[in-house]
Amino acid sequence: MTAALPHGNFASALWSVTAQHQSAPFLIEPGAKTSSYGQIDDLAARYAETLKTHGAEVGDRVLVQVCKSVEAVALYLACLRAGTVHVPLNPAFTPAELDYFLSDADPSVVVLDPSSAAARTATGGRPRILTLGPRGEGTLTEQADTPEIRAVRAVAAPIVERRDDDVAALLYTSGTTGRPKGAALSNANLRHNAVALHHAWHFSRSDRLLHCLPIFHTHGLFVALHCAMLSAIPVTFPAKFDSDQVLDSLRSTTVMMGVPTHYSRLLESPRLNAELAGGIRLFTCGSAPLRDSVFEEFSERTGHRICERYGMSETGIIASNPYNGERLAGTVGYPLPGVELRVVDVVGNDPAPLEPGTIGSVEVRGTNVFSGYWNQDNMAADNALSDDRWFTTGDLGSLDESGRLTLHGRSGDLIISGGENIYPKEVELVLDEVVGVRESAVVGVPDRDLGEAVIAVIVVDDERSALDNCKAELAARLSRHKHPKQILTAPSLPRNAMGKVQKNVLREQHSQHEQHQEISR
Questions:
Q1: Strand locations in 6-91, DSSP E?
Q2: Cβ–Cβ under 8 Å, residues 250 and 256
Q3: pLDDT by residue (tens digit) across 74-106?
């Protein structure tokens, strides 16, 4: 089905499938309405015409900060259809944060929830501020509405012709190392990744997807929805993750996509068992590392080995554990079809791949890789893209003899202490297995003697016994220079919206490490 998708505007590729299934259910809101593919296509066409009426021209950015809803999905499809550039933002961003994105993306239209739009006013007519109507209302309205504008909403806009390399979306990175940057994703990027995943994960018309993810990020907006639309299957579409609601939905689900926090929370329920998950053919996990202990416990409880995969805003999904084949805890599998992957020396300019098992910088090349960062012309100066289009992901990893990738953290997280390279994940894997430790994060902080000192922050059940256990386990399994100079406890680890631990926050919090009591030395 996906082999002959039309090129150009990715909306045409999606339409080539959904046009054949207009009466089929698409988005199913638990306890509420069900919207068919035809209804969403119709709503998207009317939204596209509304955007055009309000001044959004082909190639213009449409900045969207709205809550997850059926209407928000239709708005994304409307942006594709109209040939504009969809710029989704986290609804939790403050007005001050929004101002940065307004300045950087320079949108012609901004779409907000009514509650947040009321606090903003447009100046000089740009950008035009629209509101996405209340959940279920299905309208896209301007703060200052007119009968003419309302009348034009009934017009269905055709799909605008676009080239493969035209930008279709801007996804802003989390900005852990500076101001967020907008990854410019083309129509070809979206199509290539959707087709590769659809094939790799064996989607078919008999599937039913459980969608518990936000839709301002590549995981929920692209990975999940594109796979579903390329088979025109039903999508159970809760507004947010709720363990009991998810468990209630498992019996009528064949595929669930989640983040590590989702699986940890499901394991807290005694209801989770093999019988309840009996109809599932695939559980996938990404956006953050999945602890080995969660992977193994989930397998024991349900009989399913979670399929971990690896991706990022700039590339979509890069690699996945096999659908048919061994899924190993702690690994993210093999490159998807059409994706090249290599591991090279972190220091220096030698692009020669490292020997299997050697940790280095993960680089990727392929049609999935973005065209560059918005408003940043010189990618080479940033060491992001080489002349031959290899993208440096910023991740540390190693490949085994078969080409399976294991991640070892971010290159920016690499700690150089006393001249020795220390990979935080190696220390975290030891700490995470200690009895009484629920999770850990290891960072490097400035140290007058060593350059950087290793600091571990752990979330524990019982502080004293856990600290004693940590010291014993570290002594037995790691060289002395890898031991944290301090092990600190915290009620939780700081995370971003996708569940990734924010190590930059931990480094800032504990940069003055010498003021703390040294627990291990």
A1: 25-28, 34-36, 61-65, 85-88
A2: yes
A3: 999 999 999 999 999 988 888 878 888 999 999
